[in-house]
Amino acid sequence: MIQTLDVSVVYNGGPPALRDVSLRIEKGEFIFIVGPTGMGKSTFLKLINREAVPAKGKVIVAGRDITKLEARHIPELRRQIGVVFQDFQLLPQKTVWENVAFALQAIGADRHRIYREVPRALELVSLTHKANSYPQELSGGEQQRVSIARAIVNNPAIVLADEPTGNLDPETSWDIVQLLSKINIRGSTVVVATHDKYIVDGMKKRVVAIENGQVVRDEPGGYHHAVTEELGILPP
Amino acid sequence: MLSLRNWEFFLRETFINVRRNGLMSLAAVSTVVVSLSILGSFLLAVVNLDAMASDMARKVEITMFFLEPVSKIGAQRARKRVLEIRGVKEVQFVSRREALNRLKERLEGQIDFSDIEKSNPLPDSLEVRVFDPDQVGNVVTQLKRMQPPAGVPGFDTPQYGEKYAQRILHFSRAVKALGMFTAALLSLSILVIINNTIRLTIFARRREIRIMQLVGATNWFIRVPFLMEGILHGFIGSALASLLLLCGYYYTVTHFRMAFPFVPVIPVEGIMGHFFWVLCFMGLLFGYAGSLISIRKFLANL
């Protein structure tokens, strides 16, 4: 379970990136955080894995207020969270297998575990046959699937995806979001920040809209267009 | 606690990174080679200057040559008399044979001694050391006035070089002080240069570091491969610098000795072991400290 209570985030004395945000995400939930660029979606995800620290309020992850977490305990929190990026963040000098294994090696996993989990993760994202390829030899969709495999290889309780389809065509985007849904069905809580109307409307999951750092809408089975129309970003 | 498999990962990562980031590794190793070669050359010069100064300072002594060959008993009596003079620390009798042996040792292989050995032209002598080089003048005055014991031949005018000795002592002190100061300054600048080079290698791998942080690697776990890389760069660089310096030193000493056989220089064998390991240790330390400072700073700013 993830919960934020009256959370405000301020970067370098500027206007608040998030303002009094209170949100509760249940264990095993799939949720979209929508809203225009620069309105606080990414900041909300960063709060969950302690990349950002709120100026006020509480962030509770798995029953613990992580705003009070000591620096040396942050790695423990992050081992329960997988992160998927818009630009994939793969290491170009490592093969697909090495990129996924790196996430386990970096936390000191033993070889037995690595050889058990990496093939499993690659199979889940249907990339077993590309294990020895380098990222630059893959398509954008395949690279994002490697990024997802790396995020889930540690079997995290939470998966955070920041604009995971931002660099992909609509068809590939749909495949990626289906893959995230599959991961959600396997038990992970999935939080996706996106402004991709096509996938949000198609998935019919809970949608939280953030505008100017504030939650303006929270709908189960919601749509993306409602907020975009309200904001006048897209033509009606 | 880091286990064996972690170290296996660190070692593998270190070697893979060194290989894959070849240019950066080359830049770091070259920096260490150039910096330590400069520092090493300087240290070799200081060590030799210091040895020369010490050698010369040791020669702050008065030599009293007997005018004629003297018996052992006669020499002992003369020695006792000299020891009675105020300010004299020790007196050593050097027989003609011993004097010749010393000369042979010093000029080994440069002069053929077979003719000289047959009719040794060197005189017997007493070598007089004083407690304080400043007292040499007084002691010499008394030595000149001294009458040799009965039955012992007299002495030639005592040989000494007071002003020369004083200058040497001052020079020796100055060399040591300047040497330490400059070595510290050079070490600091080397650390800054190595630190900057390693910062570049860290910056080139910022994505890797970010991913490690996001998957939950501890800061220590992130640091170790960089520290090992720094140590490896430092060690390889310093080993290369040592080899270069030793070859250069061997060449220089060989030629210098031929040109100035009377100037004492430390032979290569005399410094080889020590110098090699000291320089390698310094390289290792610079590499470790440079990477530690850089990676700590980088992680703190993330």
Describe the structure.
The complex is a heterodimer of chains A (236) and B (302). Chain A has 236 residues and is of the alpha/beta class. Helix content of chain A is 34%, strand content 25%. Chain A has one domain (2-231): Rossmann fold (3-Layer(aba) Sandwich), CATH 3.40.50. Chain A contains eight helices and ten strands. In chain A, the strands form two sheets. Chain A has a six-stranded mixed sheet, with helices on both faces. In chain A, helix 3 (96-105) crosses helix 4 and helix 5 (140-152) runs parallel beside helix 6. The N and C termini of chain A lie far apart (36 Å). Chain B is mainly α. Chain B is 73% helix and 6% strand. Chain B has helices at residues 4-20, 22-58, 72-83, 96-106, 114-118, 136-145, 162-204, 206-214, 219-259, 268-301; strands spanning 61-65, 88-94, 125-130. Chain B has a three-stranded antiparallel sheet. Chain B starts with a helix and ends with a helix. The model of chain B has no long low-confidence stretch (mean pLDDT 83). The chains are: A alpha/beta (236), B mainly alpha (302). The interface between A and B is medium-sized, with 24 and 20 residues.
Task: Summarize the helices and strands and which ones pair or pack.
The complex is a heterodimer of chains A (236) and B (302).
Chain A: E1 2-10, E2 16-25, E3 30-34, H1 41-48, E4 56-61, E5 64-65, H2 74-78, E6 81-84, H3 96-105, H4 111-124, H5 140-152, E7 158-162, H6 170-185, E8 189-194, H7 197-203, E9 206-211, E10 214-219, H8 225-231
Parallel strand pairs in A: 3-8, 3-9, 6-7, 7-8
Antiparallel strand pairs in A: 1-2, 1-4, 4-5, 9-10
Helix pairs in contact in A: 3-4, 3-5, 4-5, 5-6
Chain B: H1 4-20, H2 22-58, E1 61-65, H3 72-83, E2 88-94, H4 96-106, H5 114-118, E3 125-130, H6 136-145, H7 162-204, H8 206-214, H9 219-259, H10 268-301
Antiparallel strand pairs in B: 1-3, 2-3
Intertermini distance of chain B = 25 Å
Class inferred from helices and paired strands of chain B: mainly alpha
Largest sheet of chain B: 3 strands, antiparallel
Order of helices and strands of chain B: HHEHEHHEHHHHH
Could you tell me which chain pair has the largest interface and how many residues each side has?
A-B, 24 and 20 residues
Portion in helices of chain B:
over 70%
Structural class of chain A: alpha/beta
List the helices and strands of chain A in order: EEEHEEHEHHHEHEHEEH
Low-confidence stretches of chain B: none
Low-confidence stretches of chain A: none
Number of helices of chain A: 8
Which architecture of chain A does the CATH hierarchy give at level 2? 3-Layer(aba) Sandwich
**In which order are the strands of the major sheet of chain B placed?**
1-3-2
Number of strands of chain B: 3
How many domain modules of chain A? 1
Distance, first to last CA of chain A: 36 Å
Quaternary state of this entry equals: heterodimer
- Count up the helices of chain B: 10
Mean residue pLDDT of chain B: 83
Radius of gyration of chain B: 30 Å
CA radius of gyration of chain A is 18 Å
